[in-house]
Amino acid sequence: MTLRLIFALSLLVLRMSAAEQVPSHREIDPIRIQLGPDGEMLTIAMDRKGNLLAGVKFHLNGDKSRDAYGIKRVGVDGRVQDTWVMTGELIPKMIHGCDDGEVYVAGNGYVAAFDETGCEIRRTDVDKLLGYKALASGLYVTDKHVFATFGSGGSLRATEEFWRFDRDLTGGRQIIGRQYGCCGHIDLEVIGSRLLVAENSRHRVNIFDLNGGKLNTWGARDRVGIEGFAACCNPCNLDVDAQGTVYTFESGIGRVKRYTADGKYLGLVGYVDTTKFDQGSRLAAQSCYIPSEVSPDGRRIYVMDVRQHFIRVLERSE
Question: Please, which residues have CB within 8 angstroms of residue 124's CB and are 6 or more apart in sequence?
């Protein structure tokens, strides 16, 4: 039996197991941003007003010989409102929009902060701090701290270290080590005084206090039921709405679900389907990285398509 057939049968079983559950959201038309013939979308985040912040690679002023990196702020209507060009080798691999309007960016050995207009206001050299080439693999910012993860390696057994900085990017120290994140990615969220880590290579969510002390773990690998996590390395991404509900995103099968912060399953949100837009496989996101954002009210969910470089949209069914 070929690997392709095994994968197809696994998807069929998962679909059958979820058949009795009605998804709360359906996929609508995606958001497409003009990036040029060789442009790339690297990640997405959300600012305090609900606009999307897309980390992108593009040609500066249309010159194909001049690659540039930046952030495009995109409204819910899909229109680009602004473009910030990164300087000093900074690449927007990870982005976090703060409640006070500041935006933090991590990538290529740096973490930097920007004001709401896109003006850089502070930066730290992470390579110098860690003593090695740091690959940014996760980012979350609270009112007091910046939590960033850095790893080295891109295999299924790649591990990441968690660092905590003050908001001014000083006082950096490692608080958690050796969390397994496939292909150099591991997502994190903060809910109150708890740090949630999507340790995707182990199909679980780990809960720590803000000093890195282990509190709890929930989730398990499950190729048949819907409450666990399927495919290679999941949950790949996490996000939280204004009510504290946790949304999980599973690569390989394109499945979105809801949980409480302590891991109680709340229901199926939906699937990101590639068939409608690019004739891909039945279920989407065949990648170990699917950046995702949930609107504060949970009505809309945005999932970046890493292969096609646009943003898929799930909307709550009425």
Answer: 110, 111, 112, 165, 169, 170, 172
In a domain, 83, yes or no: no
- 145 in any annotated domain: no
Asked if residue 274 belongs to a domain, the reply is yes
- Given pLDDT bands bounded at 50, 70 and 90, which one contains residue 153? low
For the chain, give the number of residues: 318
Give the helix/strand (H/E) hosting 197: strand 194-199
Q: Is 183 exposed, middle or buried (0-12, 13-18, 19+ CB in 10 A)?
A: buried
Residues 139 and 162: their CA atoms lie apart, in Å, by: 9
Tell me, yes or no, whether 225 lies in a domain.
yes
CB 45 within 8 A of CB 102: no
Residue 212 token pair: 């890195």
Residues 169-212: pLDDT tens digits?
A: 999 999 999 999 887 889 999 999 999 999 999 999 999 999 99
Q: Hey, CA dihedral for 189, 195, 199, 203, is it positive or negative?
A: negative
Domain that includes residue 306, residue range: 1-31+219-318
Question: Total domain count for the chain?
Answer: 1
